[in-house]
Amino acid sequence: MRRIYESNALHRDDEEAHAPSKKERKTKLQALRSVPSSTLSDLLIPRRLRHLPVSVAVETPVDEYEVGDPVPFRVTIRNRLPVPVSIPTVSPLLWEWTVDGNLEAAEVPIRDPPDEEGRLSLDRGERKDFRKRWDQLFRVTESEWEPAETGTHTIGAAINATDAEKRGLTDETTVRIVR
């Protein structure tokens, strides 16, 4: 692109709207320097306050579902600040969802994440949406699933940070299963 504008191959005119101008820039354009959002967050916001602008929301399209119908839900994680925010997590698994307190609707452990820390980074004003589905089944062993009973069930989501509930990094919604 630069060669075209530096050559004489183009018709140049300051008065014509669709032609490049003849004016030369007094300063040359410089590349914008960027700083990783986690570094900016570390510099601007103390670690103990980084959770304050972050919100978690769980939503379902409707409140009642027939027995056996899948329950779609959406988890939204949002940064309300005009600066990037990064929250340290206890593992590389950045967030998790539960049904009636069971991680991913399983009554048995389903995964063992590494003991290393992770980091949830949100750009300024960023909103991350995740879509999941609960099939109204609870995992009771490695290979067995049981259907959920009729009644009210709670779907929750949390950022996988230390003291997430105390720090306001969780949310939950209830759905009702009917016959």
What is the strand and helix layout of this fold?
Blueprint: H1 2-6, H2 37-44, E1 54-59, E2 64-66, E3 71-79, E4 85-89, E5 95-99, E6 102-103, E7 118-122, E8 127-134, E9 137-139, E10 145-147, E11 151-159, E12 170-178
Parallel strand pairs: 2-12
Antiparallel strand pairs: 1-3, 3-8, 4-7, 5-6, 5-11, 9-10, 11-12
Q: Key terms for this structure?
A:
three-stranded antiparallel sheet; mainly beta; Immunoglobulin-like; about 180 residues; five-stranded mixed sheet; about 35% strand
> How many β-strand stretches?
12
Gyration radius (Cα, Å) is: 25 Å
The top-level CATH class is Mainly Beta
Low-pLDDT stretches are: none
Written as H for each helix and E for each strand, in order along the chain, the element string is: HHEEEEEEEEEEEE
CATH architecture: Sandwich
Please give the count of helices: 2
What is the H level of CATH, i.e. the homologous superfamily? Immunoglobulins
Structural class: mainly beta
How many distinct domains? Answer: 1
| Proportion in helices | under 10%
Read across the widest sheet, the strand sequence of neighbours is: 2-12-11-5-6
State the major sheet.
5 strands, mixed
Write up what this structure looks like.
The chain is 7% helix and 37% strand. It contains two helices and twelve strands. It has a five-stranded mixed sheet with strand order 2-12-11-5-6, with no helix packed on it. A hairpin with a 5-residue loop joins β9 (137-139) and β10.
